[in-house]
Design brief:
By secondary structure, the protein is mainly α. Helix 4 crosses helix 5. It is globular, with a radius of gyration of 20 Å. The termini are close together.
Length: 174
């Protein structure tokens, strides 16, 4: 696993923070930076201006806690299998893209075509089986495809096509 972390840490650090590699700072300095940022946001709030200039997650309860996606932040969703991690990540990514934000999407588990299928399901608000089996007429199918491609053509959502090729070593393997 450590080789895996080394292999992708450089790539992830460049995506998350262009100034990656900067020296560590003390907790006190981090608190000072946080209060400076929060003071700016507080002033904006008090004067009726937009508080956050960051893309929001689309989930108000999460946005209240984290304040949206701040530049340089890396969010990792972790939970037991089949708890909805990918669905949540897709909802957030598509929501940010729909509102004009840019998203770089990484998945260690799914190929881009699988993620794309889930995104189509989200956009059409239908499960994949229903999309395939319930659209029987060719013209309706072609119109559905055309609408989704048109609606998403301006999305700045990019799926890393290499991350799913990662092979995890078996526990105890050299």
């Amino acid at each position: 696993v450590s080789d895996l972390v080394l292999k992708y840490s450089d790539k992830l650090s460049k995506v998350c923070d262009p100034s990656a590699g900067a020296a560590d700072i003390s907790a006190h300095d981090a608190f000072e930076l946080a209060f400076n940022a929060m003071s700016h946001e507080r002033k904006a709030f008090l004067t009726g201006q937009k508080v956050y200039d960051y893309p929001l997650t689309g989930f108000p309860r999460i946005d209240r806690i984290v304040g949206g996606f701040h530049p340089g932040d890396l969010f990792i969703l972790a939970a037991r299998p089949s708890e909805g991690k990918t669905a949540l990540a897709i909802d957030m990514a598509c929501g940010v893209a729909e509102r004009g934000g840019s998203v770089q999407f990484f998945s260690l588990e799914m190929k881009p075509v699988s993620l794309g299928r889930r995104m189509v399901s989200r956009l059409l608000n239908r499960n994949q089986e229903d999309i395939i089996t319930e659209i029987k007429k060719d013209d309706e199918w072609n119109q559905t495809v055309s609408n989704v491609l048109r609606d998403t053509s301006k999305y700045r959502l990019f799926i890393d096509a290499n991350m799913h090729n990662v092979v995890f070593p078996e526990p105890g393997a050299p």
